[in-house]
Predict the 3D structure of the following.
Amino acid sequence: MIAGIGVIVAGYAFVLHEQLSDHPWVAPSHPIWKQTSDLLGTPITPSASIVKNEAFFALGAALANILAIILGIIMGADRERARRLLWVIAVSGAVYALYGVLSFLIEPTMILWRDKTAYLGSVTGTFINRNTAAAYFGSCAVIWMLLIMEDVRRRVPERHLDWKGLSRDLSEIPPREILPQLLALLVCLMAMFMTTSRAGVGLSLLAMIVSFTAFLRRDLPPRTGIWISFGAGAVVALGLLQLLGGRVSSRFDSQGLVDEGRVEAWKSTLRIIADNPWFGTGMGTFQWAFPPYRSPNISMRGIWDAAHSTPLELASEVGIPLTLLITFAWVVMFIMLARGVLERRRDAIIPLAAAATACLSLLHSCLDFTLQVPGYSIPFFALFGAGLAQSLRTTEQSGRLDSLVPPAGREGRRSKIAVKAGDRSLEIHKTVYF
């Protein structure tokens, strides 16, 4: 996995060299430099980027995400540390959600010690943008739901759930052991709905339904269980949307699924990509590249410093080849996480939580810029790495089974030992000799 990430780093290094160098190997100079030189009547050293050296400063965000996922892979190879990371993200998310709700009720014009200048009618927590806040609180809600389900499933001893007696089994759980987790989930859901983000709330509810079904797939009826689970999840999601997300529903009714200006911005970004397909306009240069391509159908109010679609913005800044390489890496990551979810029995919620939050953040980034915000991307890229590490089956064994055969003519007493095989534990009897 780290070697695969090294390929991504090599791709970034090559593109950065072409964008930063005065003498690139293969990248052509952007025509804007010749036009500027002709207008000023002064020779200017050309560059493949429209803003010189900007790619060097824009590298920080991508580098932080790469280091976070590598750290997650290394530290997440140990199951205890991987679980600890999951709990830290969940607890910190609940704390930030509680702060967001309380600050909105007490002083909605402040974010910590700074003035809040945008989205005064929405909960944003410590984020500036409500859409990123919705994705963050929704991701934490997914993690809390999985932790609660794992705890409940562990307390039910049957191999397959007895749905008729499930309410009886749940009533036997001491309230003090499950109530704090339920309250944390409720706080995250409340903060998520109070952001009034359409895409953030909708995708978060979808991620919760899918992860719920994936977790209980072995306990569902073989043929119709999945569809029943999706249907029941959809009903619960619609109920929560009506109960807690009245303002979200009103935004769906008044503005539809996607803003018209955002669609026009995507079309403008596609024209940037068409004119700069190989090496883009330079990392971090979108806000300078966008104005000449800005659609007349977009309101003249405001400055578009982001494409509101991370894949499109990435392709416009670094070119199509590197974007395809990164896309391939995401596909490989999802395949590995899916394998971990399907094959693992113990700690299956770690790759499942990583897969669910990765789907949520990636889909949301196609409509906004969630993964471009370090406050969201750094902890969750670390979770992606831990999920990847826990998707691999362990090969640790405590000994060969052949050594457990007693030699002839000797007596001894029997005791139990546990032999680890993969991620299952097998309890066997071994004769201990004196």
Observations:
- Residues 396-434 have pLDDT under 50 and may be disordered.
- The radius of gyration is 26 Å.
